[in-house]
Amino acid sequence: MTEETPTKVDMEKIVSLCRRRGFIFPSSEIYGGLSSCWDYGPLGVELKRNIKEAWWRAVVQERDDVVGLDTSILMHPQTWVASGHLEGFADPLVECKGCHLRWRSDELEGDKCPSCGGELTEPRKFNLMFKTFMGPVEEEASVVYLRPETAQGMFVNFQNVLNTTRKRLPFGIAQIGKAFRNEITTGNFIFRSREFEQMEIEFFVKPGTDGEWFNYWLEERLNWYVKLGIKKENLRLREHAKGELAHYARACYDIDYLFPMGWAELEGIANRGDFDLVQHASFSGKDLSYFDEEAKEHIIPYVIEPSAGVDRPFLAFLCDAYAEEPDKDEIRVLLHLHPALAPIKVAVLPLSRREQLVAVAKEIYADLRQHWMVSYDDAQSIGRRYRRQDEIGTPFCVTIDFQSLEDNQVTIRDRDSMNQIRVPIAELQKTLVAKLEGEDLFVLPPGGMIWKEESKE
Ligand code: GAP
Residue 350: beta bridge partners? Predict the structure, then answer.
């Protein structure tokens, strides 16, 4: 994967852009924030929705063999006994005897506190699941957990989905939802937080075919990131060593991205074998087998699990799209986001606030927003308005000028090349559909004309 030199962007620039333009805010900021919890602002929520939508489209909508599900965050506590999370979902925790800061011992380089150099306690297992109580009584019998992965909701519904959809192997279940982990060490912005979202697929296959499906999903998932614009040289596959595998996994690869702090996991693809269905069948006493018509026998399917976060891909898409270009005496900051991901698809910009221009611009705005997230901006010079849109990754700006009143044409300006074309208003929406689907900007609709900007605005 790594033929070209990977590129890294400065995390501070990403954090600053996110705050400045309303992608991400610290959670409950007016109270000083809550450690490693984040709120997605007006632009962030759009980008996040678009990532989830692109994933859903690729793994559910466009496939015959995967169906969706949305299960509850709180599950029967036995779920976590059967899944092994109550016993095994723990990190080794050490505490500094001097400053009392806590660390994951497997992430420390030496045997002293990284903060004050003090002596550390012996490691103890710290379970990462958040505990709470169901109902009005706070006692052991009413303990429930916030799910640490969405996966278990799909395993416990295996028979429900099988019975209601009549799917045959191989088939998968996909789910997007919140997960919670009381991580000991957090940080690197939204990379590791305590509340995050996952996009997971549990793909059930006949035992013996799991190797080929594992390879299939590795390729499929890697390509998803590339198709949505992540540079190949910033992605790599990393195989888990035997000692590193989760308790349920027979094999696992991470898709790593070159984040500002270095290579780190974006998504994990694991072969979970029959671990989960066997465990849940045994703990629930319910039959979770599948009748194989060919072999005329009951089998327990194996599971291939492509498990992505939403927040880490969010950060990766932003880092990969971020660019700075010299622009006269200034710097043009832009996000080369794939149009499918861009929070705002089109900005409508009347050249001035003159009444006749505003009337046309507002009509265009009202029409386009039926189809996409569109923004309307009439404040400051046209150059500044283009810059504001570049910085948030808006692929196209539509400018309405005085000539538009004469010839019923408007200008479409392309974010990446800054090239412009002029098209009849009647052809505008159709042209934008084509552009947003990635057609060459210089394919002209009837009556259109084309030119290249001589210098940057
Ligand atoms: N069901 C398998 C599973 O949960 P995982 O590797 O622990 O596997 C899958 O998590 C993905 O969830 C990760 O690749 C990452 O994108 C995301 N993720 C996990 N922990 C996270 C955290 N603390 N903050 C943000 N994202 C996290």
Answer: 400
Residue 13, phi-psi category: left (phi > 0), alpha (psi -120 to 50), beta (remainder): alpha
State whether residue 250 is helix, strand or coil: coil
Identify which of 104, 303, 312 to mutate to test ligand 1's pocket (most ligand atoms within 8 A of the CB). Answer: 312
* pLDDT exceeds 80 at position 181: yes
Question: Mind giving me the DSSP string for 335-349?
Answer: E---TTT-S-SEEEE
Supply the residue whose CA is at minimum distance from atom 20 of ligand 1: 192
Which residues are bridge partners to 40 per DSSP? 24
> Cα 238 to the chain's mean position, in Å?
19
pLDDT in tens, 396-452: 999 999 999 999 999 999 999 999 999 999 999 999 998 888 755 444 555 555 544
Judge whether 343 and 47 are in contact, CB under 8 Å: yes
State the closest ligand 1 atom to the C-alpha of 198, by its place in the atom list counted from 1.
Answer: 12
Both tokens of 165, joined, read 């959809």
- Ligand 1, atom 22: nearest CA belongs to which residue? 192
Residue 314 exposed, middle or buried by CB count within 10 Å (0-12, 13-18, 19+): buried
Residue with tokens 């599971």: 303
Phi, psi of 312 (to 5 degrees): -70, -45
Handedness of CA 320, 321, 324, 325 (dihedral sign): positive
DSSP conformation letters of 412-444: EEETTT--EEEEEHHHHHHHHHHHHTT--TT-P
425 touches 385 (CB < 8 A): no
Phi, psi for 423 (deg, rounded to 5) = -135, 150
Q: Which residue has the tokens 């950060």?
A: 315
**Predicted confidence (pLDDT) at residue 133 exceeds the cutoff of 50:** yes
- Residues paired with residue 259 on neighbouring β-strands, in sequence order: 262
Other Cβ atoms less than 10 A from the Cβ of 454: the count is: 5
CA distance 163 to 115: 55
User: What is the DSSP code (8-state) at residue 117?
Assistant: -
Q: Is 40 helix (H, G, I), strand (E, B) or coil?
A: strand
Q: Is the distance from the beta carbon of residue 256 to the nearest atom of ligand 1 less than 6 Å?
A: no
Q: For residue 258, give both structure tokens.
A: 């070159």
Q: In the predicted model, what is the mean pLDDT of residues 30-43? A: 95
pTM of the predicted model over 0.90:
yes
SS3 state of residue 155: helix
Which amino acid residue places its CA nearest to atom 25 of ligand 1?
192
Task: Specify burial of residue 305 (Cβ count, 10 A radius: 0-12, 13-18, 19+).
Answer: buried
Burial group, residue 379, by CB count within 10 angstroms (0-12, 13-18, 19+): exposed
